[in-house]
Structures are given as structure tokens and as C-alpha cells.
Amino acid sequence: MRPPDGGVQDSRWDGSGWDEVSVAAASSTGEASSWKRLSRKLCSGKLGAAMKLLGRVAPFWAVFILGHVTGYFVHKCK
């Protein structure tokens, strides 16, 4: 009995000493979807590092600006 093409292939027992498990896509075309290609591009390399940095810095500035605006209206002289 052969496993289907979209199955899980475990290469632990081929004698290489590596514990590798690969999951094949069940699609017949074999191409990654556009969302996967986009996420792979945005999450790797220099662009990925810049996106991670932006993801860490943006919430800080959002809270800072929100606190500044809120503090302005709370402590505004009448």
C-alpha cells in the first residue's frame, strides 16, 4: 500500500541520522499560494528583519502618542 502524494514522509529510518519530517502539499500543481509567497517574502531576509523591527517599534510609538494626547486633554489648563 503506497501513501498518497500529499502525505507525510519521515526520513528518520534511512540511516542518515537526521530526524527530518517533510509534509508534501496536497495540491496537484505544486505551487505555493500567493499568500504563502507573500508571507515568505515579508518574513525573511532584510525585508523580514525590517518588518519585525517595525512590528516592535510601531506599538511603542502608538502608545506614546496616545498617552501624549490623553495627557494633554487631562492636564489642560482651563
Give a description of the structure.
By secondary structure, the chain is mainly alpha-helical. It has one domain. The protein contains two helices and two strands. Strands 1-2 form a two-stranded antiparallel ribbon. The relative contact order is 0.08. The mean pLDDT is 76.
Distance between the termini: 83 Å
List how many beta strands DSSP finds. Answer: 2
Radius of gyration, CA atoms, in whole angstroms = 24 Å
Major sheet: order of its strands? 1-2
Number of domains: 1
Mean pLDDT equals 76
Helix residue percentage: 40-55%
Structural class: mainly alpha
Would you list the SSEs in sequence order as H and E?
EEHH
Number of helices: 2
Largest sheet, if any? Answer: 2 strands, antiparallel
- Ranges with pLDDT <50 over ≥5 residues? none
What's the shape? rod-shaped
Q: Which percent band covers the strand fraction?
A: 5-15%
